Amino acid sequence: MSTFFKDIPQIKFEGANSTNEFAFKHYNPDEIVLGKRMEDHLRFGIAYWHSFAYEGGDPFGGRTFERPWFDGGMENAKLKADVAFEMFDILNAPFFCFHDLDVRPEGATYAENQRNLEEIVDYFAGKMETSNTKLLWGTANLFTHRRFMSGAATNPDPDVFAYSAATIKSCMDATIKLGGENYVLWGGREGYETLLNTNLSREADQAARMLEMVVNYKHKMGWDGQILIEPKPQEPSKHQYDFDVATVYGFLKRYGLENEVKMNLEQGHAILAGHSFEHELALAGSLDMLGSIDMNRNDYQSGWDTDQFPNNVPETALAYYEVIKSGGLTKGGTNFDARLRRQSLDSGDLILSHVGAMDICARGFKAAAKMFEDGTLEQARAERYADWDLPANQEMLQDGTLEGIQRHVLTQNINPVPRSGRQERLENLVSTYV
């Protein structure tokens, strides 16, 4: 046992009237909503990288956090794991997520990295025997080290492609061994800074081939988890190939992989792409591409992915409404890809940031569930398109020709009168639930 979380109690549900800051006010894991426990709907996950590897730096300054596991080799990596699982237990978190670099020391060679990862995975396995926390997903960090400065799968150097493929295999093996339910491909450097030195066709083909190998390995191993791509529009590359849901889906369709891969969607990335989170979720749902979500928020006065914990109930309600409409998070979950502000130094800050976020998500989800059960919003949407269900209009849509439709407009003297979209009424309706 470490002393990092000394005197911090396990977080329990105490209800909205509780004045105990170390208690859930709205997240009751055993509350039944839409016929299922709240914990089983939301499937909260803790991000290993932001919670335990982030040092409090920003583009203008370095480390502000002092953690006893920073720096050093495998012993500190194991101390970090001890602290992580203590936090999981304090929050009774169902899941966690990690990149390989978050959990192991960086070695001098790939072989050393593999040995380090295998050792810490064995250590995780031992911790998980006495913990209720499972692995939601694993992934490979193919963006931090300078070798990846020109990408991983899309790199012009075949040796980097090979190194990346080997690293992905190691991380997939780790994910499978720990019982992970998803594997995420996060293309942090899969993009370009200038077209002057970039071959777009070649890089797209390389990215597709890497993804195809990932899918093939999944099937070879008989693993029934989900392969997920996380769309990300910019940061750090000037232009990244996995810009948003529509871009990723077009890529998957181009290479015939749309039935093998789904998406892990993040609120902050949706905002950077110029979308709302609910837009990206709705589009993914309509394409049967929704796999899992990263719940965070951006500072709307900043043009950067600030990875803050969610604190806006209406935003989370609209997001979870789209999740519910899409059938819910099955093998996916709600991962808090969020980090403390660099002035939030205390261990209690790390716990309370998650407590608040889990309460916000619970409030948003319950509001979304009420909106879904009530059905008024969907009824209004159906009424707006109701005329399309008439047989004559279905025939026009399916079998019509320009000539025939023109004759119909002329003979029936069709002269459309605009109809209200009733946006403000629907916004008022949503506000009654949140």
Automatic annotation (TrEMBL):
Localization (cell): Cytoplasm
MF term (GO), any: xylose isomerase activity
Required cofactor(s): Mg(2+)
Positions contributing to Mg(2+) 1 binding: 230, 266, 294, 337
Reactions performed catalytically: alpha-D-xylose = alpha-D-xylulofuranose
SUPFAM superfamilies to which the protein is assigned, alphabetical: Xylose isomerase-like
Biological process according to GO: D-xylose metabolic process
Cross-referenced InterPro entries: Xyl_isomerase-like_sf, Xylose_isom_bac, Xylose_isomerase
Stored NCBIfam families: PRK05474.1, xylose_isom_A
Record text on subunit structure and interactions: Homotetramer.
Protein name (Swiss-Prot/TrEMBL): Xylose isomerase
Family: Belongs to the xylose isomerase family.
Binding site for Mg(2+) 2: 266, 269, 305, 307
Active-site residues annotated for this sequence: 99, 102
GO cellular component, one term: cytoplasm
Enzyme class: isomerase
Coiled coil: none
Source species: Pacificibacter marinus
Alphabetical UniProt keywords: Carbohydrate metabolism, Cytoplasm, Isomerase, Magnesium, Metal-binding, Xylose metabolism
EC number, UniProt record: 5.3.1.5
Top-level taxon of the source organism: Bacteria
Co-factor remark: Binds 2 magnesium ions per subunit.
